[in-house]
Amino acid sequence: MEFRAGSFQFQFPRPTLIMGILNVTPDSFSDGGCYLDTESAVERAYCMAQAGADIIDVGGESTRPGAEPVHPEEELRRVLPVIEKMKERISIPISIDTRKVKVAGQALKCGASIINDVEACREDDEMGRLVAGEGAGYIVMHMKGNPGTMQKAPVYDDVVDAVQKFFESCLDRLNHVGVSLNQIVLDVGIGFGKTLEHNLELLANLEIFKKNHRPLLLGVSRKSFMSKLLKVEVSERLPAGIACTCWAVQSGVEIIRTHDVAETMQAIRMLEAIGSQKSRSDECSRHC
Question: Are strands 94-97 and 2-5 parallel, antiparallel or unpaired?
Answer without folding.
Answer: unpaired
